Amino acid sequence: MTIPVTVRVQHDDFDVELETKMLTAGRTDVGAVVSFIGICRGGGDDLEISEMTLEHYPGMAETEIWRHADEARKRWPLTGVTVIHRFGTVTPGDNIVLVLTASAHREAAFRAAEFLMDYLKTNAPFWKSEKRVSGEERIWIDATAHDDAATSRWKK
Q1: Distance (Å, rounded) from C-alpha 51 to C-alpha 19?
Q2: Where does the pLDDT of residue 143 fall: very low under 50, low under 70, confident under 90, or very high at 90 and above?
Q3: Which domain range does residue 42 map to?
Q4: Number of domains, the chain
Q5: Are 4 and 80 within 8 A, CB to CB?
Q6: Phi/psi of residue 58, each to 5°?
Q7: Strand ordering across the sheet containing 78-86
Q8: Pairing of strands 95-103, 78-86
Q9: CA angle 145-91-129, nearest 5°?
Q10: Is the pLDDT of residue 154 over 80?
Q11: CA dist., res. 46 & res. 60, Å (int)
């Protein structure tokens, strides 16, 4: 059986419920779906964000996400994968990324979703800049040491 994999890089928002239904429609082999939705936060750490701009390398971003989705399918017994990443300008409360992983059992779905999000956070060809409410110049955001440590656990 072919495992459905969807990878999209898009400007427009996504509908989590619709994407989940499309991943599982007519399927009796799915026992678990894990979803991760990354949302633009506004602050809370003394750095209020008014907007975030996400840039990507067209073509390369999709290819790299597909490569990691294939790696997830090799590592875990998945029955489906969806990865949608937005680009452009988003504001606090807006969706940024969706990762859905489906499997017969929850452990594989959880592990694969973590693997994919750790990759997206640290190595995917996306660049993020934030504009602060205070009016400061745009600040480019890099992965943190914590993000890098999380990704390193997946190395073979």
Answers
A1: 25
A2: confident
A3: 5-152
A4: 1
A5: yes
A6: -55, 140
A7: 5-10, 78-86, 95-103, 32-39
A8: antiparallel
A9: 40
A10: no
A11: 35
Do 76 and 112 contact (CB within 8 A), yes or no? yes
pLDDT above 90 as % of the chain:
71
Identity of the residue numbered 21: K
Q: Which amino acid is at 125?
A: P
Distances (CA, A) of 44 to 49, 92, 110, 131: 9, 11, 27, 15
Say what the pTM is: 0.91
Indicate the SS3 state at residue 82: strand
Cα distance between residue 130 and residue 137, in whole Å: 9
At 141 the pLDDT is 79
Using alpha carbons, select from 123, 30, 23 the residue that is nearest to residue 68. Answer: 123
Query: What residue type is assigned to position 47 of the chain?
Result: L
For the chain, give the mean pLDDT.
91
Check which CATH number belongs to the domain holding 92 and give it: 3.90.1170.40
Tokens 């949608």, located at residue: 84
Distance of CA 69 to the CA centre of its chain: 11
